[in-house]
Give the backbone structure.
Amino acid sequence: MANFIIASTDSTYSYTSTIPVGYVFTPQSNNSFGNTQGFLRKKQIGKSRVKATVVLMVSVSDYEQTLIPMLSYATNVNVTFDRVIPASGVTTKEFTFETLALKQIFPDDTYEIQIELIEVLD
């Protein structure tokens, strides 16, 4: 794997990883279901979106000075993957930065982290 780039939409915060990372793309249904009068089942179909789970190896300074502020920053993020995002045909899309989890701390001031991103629908 080559590059993973995440940047706030106004470019205030930006992070590029050249260290190999792991991705998991999961389709998220945007459908809603309901019962009417207790017997009729109703389905409202919405556009599906993609949830991306990314595992990164980052330095302590990148984690504390870039990624943590980006999590609470007021804008969405533009994310560029080194592969095509499923069902979209592109490698760059706008996402909402949902969660940031510290998975493991290594002795050489390196962290293994997990980021969860949800696609912003057009």
Notes: The chain has one domain: 4-119. Residues 4-119 form a domain with the Elongation Factor Tu (Ef-tu); domain 3 fold (CATH 2.40.30). The first strand starts at residue 4 and ends at 8.
